[in-house]
Amino acid sequence: MNQQLMHDRLKLHFGYDSFRPGQESIIERVLSGRSVLGLLATGGGKSVTYQLPAMLLPGLTVVVSPLISLMVDQVQQLRARKKIPATYLNSMQDPTESREILKGLAEGAFKLLYISPEKLQQPYVQQVLKRTRVSLIAIDEAHCISQWGHDFRTDYLRLPQVVKQLGAPPVLAVTATATATVREEICSLFSIEKEDVVLQSLNRANIAYDLVEVAEEIDRRSYVIDQMDRLQGPGIVYCSTRQAVDVLTASYQLDGKKRVHGYHGGMNSMERMLIQSQFLAGELDVIIATNAFGMGIDKPDIRYVIHYQMPASLEAYAQEIGRIGRDGKPGYALLLFSWDDWQIHQHMLEKEYPTQAQVQKYEQLCNTGVPLTNEALAMVDISEEMGALLAFYTERVLASYEAAAVGESYPKAQIIWQETEKRRSFKQKKLAEMVSYVRGENCLRASINTYFKENDHQFDLYCCKKCGLTTDAYFQTNDHTIAKNEQIKWNLRQALDTLLPNK
Amino acid sequence: MNSRNSAAEEQDLLCAVALNAMLPLANERTLQSAYYILRGRKANQTLQDVHLYTLYPYYRMFSRFPREDWEKIVSTLFQAGWILPVDAGGTNSKPTFTFSDTGLQHAKHMYQKYRFDVWFAPFTQSDLAERIEPFWSRLHLMVQTISQMHHGDLGFIPVVSDKTAQRSVKNQLADGAMRTAWKQQLSDELYRLWEPLDEGVQELLFCQLSGVGQVGKTLGQVAEIRQTSRSYLMLQFRYGLAASIQTLLAESNHYPLLSKLVTESHKLDPRLTESAARTYALLQTGSDKKEIAKKRQMKESTIEDHLVEIALRCPEWDMTTYLPNELAKEIVETSERLDTSRLRLIKDQSEATVTYLQIRLALARATRGAK
Ligand SMILES: [Zn+2]
């Protein structure tokens, strides 16, 4: 493929003059029809690696993405700014809408289709795609397919089979976080050759890593509120739960100086869109959010991320602080932790996975032949989520055993439980790694980079808490308190003239 | 005043709304029925209650009202002695409630204190609640789009992600002459539409809009700026939109553009679920259920479900093609004779040619008539 053409298209659709590290070699490989695994730091421009090929390849590019909100945002941006005919399919759409989109796909009206993994499993969707020419299947957040990834998703596991059914077009798996084990698994599932794994340096030289242990909830809150007042924004504060978001937001708003808003999945979509737009437009200084915030937002000048509580894994942590300082200017990552955080995660883990007795009850329920409705599950004390988990493992165990030993009986419940235990202990291990990161004595940058097999440990301003850092460097220098609600006499005509200047 | 006071005012306002919504329901309905009305449940019983007790302003006032919050309000009302429980028994098959004298007085006092007479005035028919949200989505998106057009920048992310609203605005602007008209006259029409409203309401509506140089504020943000309760603003916001819709419906010739954002909803009947409304629109063009099923690529049984819904909610629909009047009468009589609504029992007692669809249609219409 012509290099000049790639650069021209980059300028035309994305407005960039040059590729970021890794992008070009991924795109070249994809365009020559190879399957590729691309590992790019968060904010390293993952989406360009499939959006640009989509415009150059003859057929359709299918992007598998787990996040509906991200899908909607990206498609809107593509249509609006980049003039790329893109659309999306997910389970939230009504049947009429899906049908219209499928019709458009069959007619070749789109170059790019975002789709959720569960939608891609549906036979009628596959039928339409089979008839359409699919040039590339891009798998976003590809680490979700690995059992050893921190956000393993059961609906990703069937993707290799779907790729085959669609005539085995080349695959581009992209992710920002993947350990060596995860990489190997992705490559073997999609038959990606070793030389087609493209890695970009995961070291974030402009970010300084800070860490503070807190004993009491009250200390934690007052410390964070104080930091929010002093730190140079814009910034994001991540909390583990919606409730924590609401409480911290309310207490900050009592006497904090900055313009702050909460953000979580419990808010309606227009409200979330407004908050996000305000943050992008610089009308808010800080967003206090659950991990629902941040995926797919393109704001290069985020100066700090505070973790109000310790996240459940280093992968999640790296992803969230990866949003700091994409403009390359200095940024600050502060992680607060306490023994309580560990206990809360521990408790959530216990709740997520079944006990041996629960698996047995589930088995019995299956054998009775009763449809597995939520009500039926609730009768034996199994939540909807756990029901889904058990259904998944049951299917897997059945598939592997029935093929091997036809008709022979085997301790099915026991095996299923062992499988879920494996998964639980895996998550336990992730949590332990996170704990050992916060309790460790070594350089934080080195610890996190080593975890992701990155040997480059350079830094710009400060390295980390262990190597010594001055928080002052990240405080705002000029004390410009924002004039809150200045009183201007209301005038409807004037207001309308500003918003809709009738020239 | 700070956020703590706002929280107290919020509670006070919610009590005021709840009390006044409950007033006509006392001794006749359960407390839950008031909750369903405020949440805007689409069940037939709720819709009937709204008509029967003319509770139009309350319908769908707080579509996301959490049940815990409702329970808290109810227990406050009981504790204050404003309402008293009435057990099931006698003429009541379900437990209901009654008002104390102080409760009656308090309800009246709160009605005046919060100027409900002003905010509720435009809610004179049942479909307003259904129109508010789509109207606001379209208006919001239209203003954002036109504002961006004025600045020659169409590369923006729409604040409204609702597909129907996006499609409708796109249709409006598809034609060049229409685009010019919108660009030139939107500001003026909005001015005339909102100028008669209370200034506080004007500003409330305006500051939630987005466009070049302005990202809309959320209701919560406005509440914080004005140091008032969010739900009270919600009342005023709904008033502003309902009043706008009423004006646009009554004087569409004075608002050739903005009235399009309202009248469009006529195409899809707001009384129905979206899918049934699409079926109804096709019925009105003369298609029969087979053709509709084919056109919409749906099972005929799904279309039949729609017909039943239409029979229930749209009394004007002439369903004699599917159910001759004579047969309808027979089915209803059978149902009454057997004292049952169970389809199977009725079918067993009817002629072999009678279909389940016919029985369902007959019963749906009968329920509607019995109200
Ligand atoms: Zn260090």
Automatic annotation (TrEMBL), chain A:
Highest taxon of the lineage: Bacteria
Domain spans labelled Helicase C-terminal: 223-378
GO molecular function, one term: helicase activity
A Pfam family of this chain: DEAD
Gene3D superfamilies reported in the protein's UniProt record: P-loop containing nucleotide triphosphate hydrolases, Winged helix-like DNA-binding domain superfamily/Winged helix DNA-binding domain
Domain Helicase ATP-binding: 27-196
Transmembrane segments: none
InterPro entries in alphabetical order: DEAD/DEAH_box_helicase_dom, DNA_helicase_ATP-dep_RecQ, Helicase_ATP-bd, Helicase_C-like, P-loop_NTPase, RecQ_Zn-bd, WH-like_DNA-bd_sf
CDD domains: DEXHc_RecQ
The entry's keywords: ATP-binding, Helicase, Hydrolase, Nucleotide-binding
NCBIfam families: recQ_fam (TIGR00614)
UniProt protein name: ATP-dependent DNA helicase RecQ
Organism: Brevibacillus porteri
From TrEMBL, chain B:
All residue ranges annotated as the Helicase Helix-turn-helix domain in the record: 275-363
Top-rank taxon, per record: Bacteria
Pfam families per UniProt: HTH_40
Protein name, as recorded: Helicase Helix-turn-helix domain-containing protein
Native species: Brevibacillus porteri
